[in-house]
Design brief:
This protein is α/β, with parallel strands linked by helices. It contains seven helices and nine strands. It has a single domain (4-107, 138-152), classed as Phosphotransferase system, sorbose subfamily IIB component (Fructose Permease), CATH 3.40.35. Strand 8 (139-142) and strand 9 form a beta hairpin.
């Protein structure tokens, strides 16, 4: 059976993904699931240029990526599905894609967000969505690169965010 990695990282394609994770799972394909970028031909071309010839990078809407993931023959190579944010991942999962675990790589700071890891900041809405994903049976780990220690996202939130007041 081929390996599939689901990852939230608001930077999407960068060294940690292409060099770290793609090599670690020996990925032959990265699928960026992002409605905004799917219509931006320039960004799509830029993402495709950063990869090695043996690594295919595709940019699809969340719905298109889910349809792709549901095809039985999609896993002809090891694959990474990349999401910019928790809402996109939840939409993807609700379209029927079976997800056992998600890797959280980076979620930038913005107003109202609290830090739970060096590069992971969450707000109330993220927190709510993560609880929904957990209720769907999805385990979420924080791990920037494969050599980092895996941290349970929900445990980190529980430890570091006692209240939103």
């Amino acid at each position: 059976m081929k390996k599939v990695l689901f990852r939230i990282d608001d930077r999407l394609i960068h060294g940690q993904v292409v060099v770290g994770w793609a090599r670690y799972i020996e990925a032959g394909r990265i699928v960026v699931a992002n409605d905004r970028l799917s219509g931006d031909e320039t960004q799509r071309m830029l993402y495709q240029m950063v990869a090695s010839p043996e690594l295919s990078i595709e940019v699809h809407t969340v719905e298109e990526a889910a349809r792709l993931a549901l095809k039985r023959d999609v896993a002809d190579v090891n694959i990474i599905f990349l999401f910019e944010n928790p809402p996109d991942l939840l939409r993807f999962a609700r379209l029927g894609v079976s997800i056992k675990s998600v890797n959280i790589g980076g979620m930038r700071h913005s107003e109202g967000k609290r830090q739970i890891h060096e590069a992971v900041f969450v707000d109330r809405e993220d927190h709510r969505l993560f609880h929904t994903l957990k209720a769907m049976g999805i385990y979420m780990e924080i791990r920037m690169v494969p050599t980092d220690q895996s941290l349970d996202l929900m445990q980190r939130i529980k430890e570091l965010i006692k209240s939103w007041d």
